[in-house]
Amino acid sequence: MVESVDQHFAFYRQLLYFYQHNRGKIRSRYNGLTKKFLAYNDRDENPSAFLRRPQFEALEMYVFIKEFLGNPQVFEMFEEWRSHTGNFDGASYYAVDKAGQGALFDSAVEKTMDTVFAQMKRYKEDYPNYIYALTMGLGKTILMATCIFYEFLLARQFPKDERFCHNALVFAPDRTVLESLREIMTFDKSKVVPPEYARVLDANIRFHFLEEAGTSLQTLDGSDFNIIISNTQKIIVKRKRKADTPAEVLFSAGSLLAQVYGGDDEDGDVFDDASLLDNQRFKKLCRLPQLGVYVDEAHHLFGADLEKQIRSASGRKTSLRDTINMLAASTSIVACYNFTGTPYVNRQLLPEVVYAYGLRESIKEGYLKDADLTAFENVKSEDFLRAVIVRFWDRYGGGLFEGLPPKLAIFASTVEEADQEVRPAVERILAELGIPLSSILINVGDTKLTKDQDIRDFNNLDVEGTQGSQKQFLILVGKGREGWNCRSLFGVALFRSPKSKVFVLQATMRCLRQITDEQQTASVFLSKENYDTLDAELSKNFNMEISEMGNKPSDRRRYEVRVLPPPRTITLKRIWREYSLLEKEPPASVDFGLVDADLSRYAATVYEQKSIGSSAKVSEASADDVRSQTRYSLYTLTAEVARYLNLSCLLVSRLLVESVDGADLVLETVNQYNEVLYDVIIPTIFNALFEVTSEVKSEDRELVLLREPKDRGFYDFSARPELVVKQSDERVENVWQKSFHADTYCFDSQPERECFFQYIRSRQVKEVYFTGMFTSNQGDFLIQYYDPESGRIRSYYPDFLAKMADDTYEVIEVKGDDQIDSALVKAKTEAATEMATASGVEYKMYAGSRIMKSATLAELVAVSQSLTDLPELTF
């Protein structure tokens, strides 16, 4: 029995907080390829990035755990965090605050810590085991594919780094979900991988989709970059049930068949003491190095079954976890990554969770549809269906959403019920409403009722222009689980209680997938019994109540923001630097400076104290012998430098041999500390052969503050009502003509709103526009700057643009007092000041407290007048 813990504590939240607090510092430590990969998927740096925020946050945590923390067990991370040691040391560069990780825990929290740590230790495996919990509809399959692509790119660049996966095994819980995993094979990699690297992946990745039970696995032993997609039944070990027949003995004895089918003569057929049989696919997997295991839709088995599925302690010997453990005993498993829809099991948080984005947050932030729930009690089945269809048609009718008609899924408990009760009733009701019967689709898993064309139509529900997309009333049996996605599904009806209670939850969530940029609202119709079941299942699996789904209170409202003519523009200087690479004559010799070089910063050190209870001093000794270093010969060193700089091997060899240091010292130093190759040798040769010059250039550019939206008549924003100012607002009744290039301004903070009021009401200001709410997809007014923490060029959008009474311009930024002195804000200020100076405009940054406490423009006038009123001085 798992001991209950305080549900307010979740270690994954502490991990995320630590990462976000140190995000820039941590990302600056990553290698160049990882930085490019993350930047390509970061909407702050690449506004057209494909991943949504929860997917990208999960990817960031995936990389953080692997590259920064070193792929540890979850309990090891927790112990370091709890004890403020290692990367979580309160005195380290990454400390959350100056006082360290935080204050000492009280006794209640300490008890929770003890319980959580005990759970983590109890369920640890011989390899790291992580859970990423993103609720249904957030794109777990795409996230999984992105993580695998990242692994393979890094494994290709750093083949000896044991943190990275060279092969990936993707498990699906059943055939339905297995089919949905084809998306990994067909997905356009360039959406999440920079195009130049996507081509590398296309040339190297080999997919193996084990669809049929008799399909053999055709991987090359010891090969890399294989992605094997299978359900557990096609890999899992099986218990030997009966004695071999004479024919089986005959054909299993020969080594020829063993070689053909991947058998092992020495091991025979029995894998362990429990007489578990491993099949050809299992043995082939055991011959693949650096294997990463990815379990998709682990939440397919909700409740206690999920815990059994991911734990060996409570699972059977033929469980998925036991199969993974047996693989780990035969090959190197980097880690097991479980992708699940919920971090909870019976209201208890699973301790292995390292990232979670729940149903409540997904609905609130608009990543899923909202849902209105209606329950019926003491009504007959046909009365229920009539009320459901009438309400659905009244609400959604002939509407189109991204060109797709809205759909209603009606779940029957049996094929007989679907055929004899539901279909006749639905046909009668549609006839009464004048709706064509051709809009009905039946998919019940019985070939007598569901034909091949019905299956094709079912697969094309979201394919605009197809016959399947015109089906609006879906009569289904057993299709509530994962494995089929329909964004145009707007309603679910479930009257009779299914055998599985969790099916009610799964079926309900089918209609929540997002469609259109604006959040839509689906309708869920249940019997009162199923309504109560849904409430209980939401509590067990998502730790939320049913009241939090439909009609939830929120302090934010959605606003349709429309562009007001005429287009506002401003001409500013675009500043950039052009770099030129000039080739120099190769020198007679180069000096690497290794003779007198201080190499102490590369040295590994071990600290020892003989007795922790004694006053003996801590001794220090070199630990260089425990480091894993590549041993170069003159030939391999020459090849590495030539490959890195794209130079002639003969030229590189001459420079090394004829260097001031001499080839022997260069080899000795590089073999002692491999880092010297990239920190000293390669840069020195580059500087000896090339010269880099830069030139600052600028040009005038006319920037449009806000463009018309492409496909709609408005932009969709959400904001707190008290921070919204409209053109018709009485607070700007007499001055609105001085502003509003959009009819509604949604401010992020009170200081921003107050700054707007001060400027628009001032006689010193002709025009002022709030630009901070619009991004590069909506306007051109942005400033590029160098982020010192991530080492990337990024863009930011100033809060205001003001035209003053003397026809000069001001670019204005409002920041919180705690942000003014940060390195990031200073970098923005430097770039904005450079642009403003070149463009003849003034850049101003106000602290939020200053805006709230005083009339800023009045202060400036007073200072100006006081300067002109000074008495004239005579000498």
What is the element layout, followed by pairings?
Layout: H1 11-21, H2 23-28, H3 32-41, H4 53-68, H5 74-83, H6 107-122, E1 129-134, H7 140-157, E2 167-172, H8 175-180, H9 182-186, H10 195-204, E3 206-209, E4 226-231, E5 238-239, H11 246-253, H12 255-260, E6 276-277, H13 280-285, E7 291-295, H14 303-310, H15 320-330, E8 333-340, E9 344-345, E10 348-349, E11 353-357, H16 359-364, E12 370-376, H17 381-396, E13 407-411, H18 415-433, E14 440-443, H19 452-459, E15 473-476, E16 489-494, H20 502-509, E17 521-527, H21 528-542, E18 557-561, E19 569-583, E20 605-608, E21 619-622, H22 634-645, H23 649-657, H24 663-672, H25 675-689, E22 690-704, E23 715-719, E24 724-726, E25 744-746, H26 750-761, E26 765-770, E27 783-787, E28 792-796, E29 800-804, E30 809-815, H27 823-839, E31 842-847, H28 848-853, H29 856-868
Parallel strand pairs: 1-8, 1-11, 2-4, 2-7, 3-4, 7-8, 12-17, 13-15, 13-16, 14-15, 16-17, 30-31
Antiparallel strand pairs: 5-6, 9-10, 18-23, 19-22, 20-21, 24-25, 26-29, 27-28, 29-30
Helix pairs in contact: 4-7, 5-6, 17-18, 20-21, 22-23
